[in-house]
Amino acid sequence: MMREMGENWGNRPPDSEAVVQFDQVGLRYDLGPEIFRDIGFSLPGGSFHFLTGSSGAGKSSLLGLCYLALRPTRGAVTLFGRDVTRAPRAALPRLRRRMGVVFQDFRLINHLSAMDNVALPLRVAGVSETDIRHHVPELLAWVGLADHLDARPPTLSGGQKQRVAIARAVINRPDLLLADEPTGNVDDRIAMRLLHLFEELNKMGTTVLIATHNEQLVRRFPYPRLHLDQGGLTLHPVGSEPWNGGGTARRSTDRPYP
Amino acid sequence: MRSDLPLAGNRSSSLVTVLVGVMVFLAVLAAAGGLALNNVLDRWTHDVAGNLTAQIPPVPGLGEDARAATDARVARALEVLDAYPGVAAARALTEDELVTLIEPWIGSGEVLNDLPMPRLIDITMRPDALPGLDPGAMAQVLRTAVPGATLDEHRLWLSRLLDLGEAVGWLGVTVVLVVGLATAVAVVHATLAGLSTHRPVIEVLHMIGAQDDYIARQFAAHALRQGLKGGAGGFMLALPALAGLGLLAGRVKGGLVPTVGLSVLDWIVLTLLPFAAAGLVMLTARLTVLRTLARMP
């Protein structure tokens, strides 16, 4: 499975080109207060970032802007080198097929088996059933769910659902992987295993952005961190102290991004 | 086709099936009635349109003399009619034929001997002469030759009958259209209900890159299944009703009402109706989904 993932990457942008770029992005829901003020960052192709911040800081909203569930109120969002701030609806499916998203609440389809849930991105993209029957069980086995191919999500534990959600996000070998608390419901052993899966995808070129609360995880994996606080975003390069309240974000080694 | 949406569990979907059933039932009956009526009218038009009937009053009296005088009138009328432009044939009905015609009203027996019977002449016009035919002028010529003779034109009452038949036909079409409209409205409603029930699933499908068409296809396939199910049911129910009506119509035999029946082509049209209804349902569902999704963010 993983070996095959290295093939057919096709039109991946060169590493120097940003896969995700935010320029002075502002977001507000209806007439509420601004959730983001002038956020700017860019994720170069093939990079791996954590996204941190206290709950309610807007991690899910920022991911939502990336996978185009939300449109910015101000500023510009660029994906795969294309300004999508005002992209027409018809352009979205093509962009979304290049991403894998792990939702915090999984968003599995309850009446479909684990197998069919994971197969969905392939079916939507018109992949043949033969290929689907070949690849999907393989990936589900890899995340430890070989015995649950036909299980429906309501019968699975939180951790099992999460792994199905992750399998669905990576089955189409995305160019960009966005994950919202992907290790929130699993024990440490599985969390490490999943992180290794993300790393492996990343080594083959997938740009990864993982929103997480898990301080240990961020410590153990040497990747830079985007930190959200009070509507602003700061970049913490590798090796800087993990966040611990608001103080660390204003250390002199941190710099606003970009 | 496999479906990512649990559409079959939707309660309003059984409403659509029932409505399509009712629609197809009514449509098949209305169409069968219309087609049968059309066949009858066609035959009447064909049989009657080129024909006129001349009526020659009898010479009063019951003796041989009176009869001979009446025969002479008929012969004179035939002469005039044969010479009239556009007449293909003019033939006096025999006494036997006259007896047959009036038998249902008067009974058999030596009626012709006891009653002064008017004689009838059946006139067939050449088809090319029909458009320019002036029945008034023709009747005038006939009256000049045989005083008291009259000319019945069938086309007048036939055209009124055709008007009536046509109106009944349009009524049937209107019934089908109204029921079709009601079904379409119900389909729109059921589809919107389905869209709102399954909105979370639809959002997930969008997030993983599904195009609107992918989702619309699933709704359309489900609607097609319901439409076919309802259509088959309605058609099956209409068959015994048609058979019953056919039986009743078959018992009405005799001069005025020609045999009522449906041709093979008519049956093909009737069989296509359930499929047409299912197609309407499918198309309505598809358009509703596409229009609604286009308004989603």
Automatic annotation (TrEMBL), chain B:
Annotated keywords: Cell cycle, Cell division, Membrane, Transmembrane, Transmembrane helix
Transmembrane segments: 12-37, 167-192, 232-252, 264-289
One cellular-component annotation, GO: membrane
InterPro entries, alphabetized: FtsX (IPR004513)
Residue ranges of coiled coil: none
Any one Gene Ontology BP term: cell division
Organism superkingdom: Bacteria
Protein name listed in UniProt: Cell division protein
Species the sequence originates in: Roseospira marina
